[in-house]
Amino acid sequence: MTVAPIALTCGEPAGVGLELAEKAWRALRDELAFFLIADPDHLPGTVPATFIQDPSEARAIMPNALPVLPHPFSGKAVPGEPDPDNAEGVIEAIARGADLAMSGAASALCTAPINKKALKVGADFPWPGHTEYLAYLGDVENVVMMLASDELRVVPTTIHIPLSDVPAALTPDLLRQTISITAEGLRAQFGIPNPRIAVAGLNPHAGEGGTMGQEDATILAPIIEGFRAEGVDVTGPLPADTMFHAAARARYDVAICAYHDQALIPMKTLAFDRGVNVTLGLPFIRTSPDHGTAFDIAGKGIAAPTSTIEALRLAHRMASRA
After folding, report:
1. Is 64 annotated as contributing to ligand binding?
2. Residues 6+ apart with CB under 8 A from 204
């Protein structure tokens, strides 16, 4: 199936995103089509680039040069030194990529890492991060962050909050929304008609009958039973310490976890440089590499492109199923 090219945003120009885009082109030039939204003056220039006016031009150019949709920025790109003058450009490039994905001109959106502090300083960026901004652009209220690899898919129900705040944030409504969006995303974008969903308990041993906390029995279990009554294959709450060995992983398609580290520790242990961030619940496909801007190594040519390559590959597979 032939799909439209993927839009890849440049992310923070002082980070590793641009050099990873060029490395990804080297790896994928004969496999799939994508185009980079970036300021031509910011490109590292390690590969040939051709500027395009429309995403439809990218496929023919891809085998011979990196297709670039020019998007001028106000500042310079100095590796490791974010320029506040570039903040507006970073935000606009994301919005442009989302518009192209929603219009169908791009089959999906893949986003290189941003630096939230740089966006806040330079443009008073009001969103906590990429995901929330994309939800705003897509005019949806609730989205889910999933980390995916060949070995494992995980969803943290609560994300970037202190561990002490997790029990109060883990409400029945939030868990219900997370399970619903995850199940629909696996059906629609991953081609799994009857997804098997495992829910990790909040407390050690999933509460062990209430001796190690009541949340698993009073909050998680009733929601899980409700989904099971509707015919959704949901199991849990399960003890998190026995959910991630190979035999356990074979019994589910995704693990929904109570908090950030409960999900990301097994993911990064099993697939440290191959994990892909997927946002479920948007009106378009969005993936991103599972790492940050890496200012400390930006411009040195040593950043590993594996996660960016896998993010583009996954976006292509998801778009091919749509």
Report:
1. no
2. 212, 213, 239, 241
| Span 111-134, pLDDT tens digits | 999 999 999 999 999 998 888 999
- Tell me the backbone φ, ψ of residue 212, rounded to 5 degrees: -125, 30
C-alpha span between 59 and 38 (Å, rounded): 18
Query: Has 268 been labeled as part of a binding site?
Result: yes
The per-residue pLDDT for range 283-315, each reduced to its tens digit, is: 999 999 988 999 999 999 999 999 999 999 999
* Residue 248, CA distances (Å) to 88, 238, 282 in order: 45, 11, 30
Alpha carbons 259 and 241: distance in angstroms, whole number:
14
Q: Given this model, what pLDDT does residue 1 score?
A: 64
Q: pTM for the complete prediction?
A: 0.93
Residues of the chain under the 50 pLDDT cut: none
The backbone torsions φ and ψ at residue 321, rounded to the nearest 5 degrees and listed phi first, read: -90, -15
Asked if residue 116 belongs to a known ligand binding site, the reply is no
Cis peptide before 55 (omega within 30 of 0): no
The answer on whether 160 is annotated among ligand-binding residues is yes
Q: Which CATH number fits domain 1-142+280-322: 3.30.390.50, 3.40.718.10, 3.90.1750.20, 2.40.50.140?
A: 3.40.718.10
In CATH, what number does 151-270 get? 3.40.718.10
The H or E element spanning position 197 is strand 196-200
Residue 130 among known ligand-binding residues: yes
Domain boundaries, the chain: 1-142+280-322, 151-270
